[in-house]
Design brief:
Elements lengths: L1 H7 L4 H13 L3 H14 L4 H10 L4 H5 L9 H13 L6 H9 L5 H14 L5 H10 L4 H13 L3 H8 L8 H13 L3 H14 L3 H20 L3 H12 L7 H15 L12
């Protein structure tokens, strides 16, 4: 829809930006690039347009760096530059230094932004960085959601649950994505699957499809082990039909469905779990 809207209105930077945003998140950067370039041409001062152009060029870090003179502050464009520098093994370049210095800035919003991007750039391994970002901007649920997921990854489940209680925006993708991670870690797997469905319905892109697909698949395996074959089959069929028949989770689901069918008795009930 966004692509056709952009094609129908060549003078709208916003429509071209939305088309680029959508294609980038569908993992189609080559297709996104022409729309991102058009959006940037129409609105060269818009950070969003430049960000999507940089994202579409991520596989060409040298090309990303040609836009460095247009970035004066933080935000996602600064992150894109720093990512390109790391990809080129230029660890002492200006954007990485800028983020490092900004993380200690007296401006809490600027420091929080820098800490968040540094945390992502370092492979999300330094918990202190995302803790600091959330502490500096306590009302930003974006940072808090990432903190909760980082705490879950560190197996600090009680603290993660405590932090999640402070998230209140149930209309946001971040809320449901974070809820799914936490509830799975807490052993509330059916609730986690429901959370993941909500997140996917809000943002239907490959990464969220994968999250939901694997949630459905692994929950189905648990149900099979518990002998709940019919409930497992329902989830497996949902998994099989999610996004693409060639996706890895769909192929796994199809294989399990075929195995389940081999255990169907003459009465139409499922036999012993395998």
């Amino acid at each position: 829809m966004y692509v056709s809207e952009a094609q129908a209105d060549p003078s709208s930077w916003w429509k071209h930006y939305r088309a680029a945003w959508c294609l980038n998140r569908l993992d189609q950067p080559d297709s996104a690039r022409c729309y991102a370039r058009r959006a940037f041409y129409l609105a060269p001062g818009e950070e969003k347009a430049l960000s999507e152009l940089m994202r579409s060029l991520a596989s060409e870090p040298e090309s990303v760096l040609t836009y460095s003179h247009l970035v004066s502050g933080g935000g996602v464009c600064r992150y894109r530059l720093a990512r390109a520098e790391l990809d080129l093994n230029r660890y002492a370049e200006s954007s990485i230094q800028w983020l490092t210095e900004a993380s200690a800035n007296s401006d809490s919003a600027k420091a929080a932004d820098a800490c968040c991007w540094l945390w992502i750039l370092t492979g999300r391994s330094d918990l202190e960085l995302i803790e600091k970002a959330s502490a500096l901007a306590p009302d930003e649920e974006f940072y808090r959601g990432m903190l909760v997921e980082a705490l879950v990854d560190s197996e600090k489940i009680e603290r993660a649950a405590s932090e999640f209680e402070r998230m209140t925006d149930r209309s946001s993708f971040s809320y449901w994505s974070t809820a799914s991670e936490l509830h799975w870690a807490e052993g509330l797997h059916d609730l986690s699957v429901d959370d993941c469905r909500k997140a996917f319905n809000m943002r239907q892109i490959p990464s969220t499809a994968a999250d939901l697909g694997w949630r459905l698949y692994f929950r189905s395996r648990e149900l099979i082990e518990a002998g709940s074959m019919q409930k497992a089959e329902i989830l497996l069929r949902e998994c099989s039909g999610l996004w693409s028949a060639e996706s890895s989770w769909a192929l796994r689901a199809d294989s399990l469905i075929n195995s389940l069918n081999e255990f169907t008795s003459v009465n139409g009930d499922y036999g012993e779990p395998f």
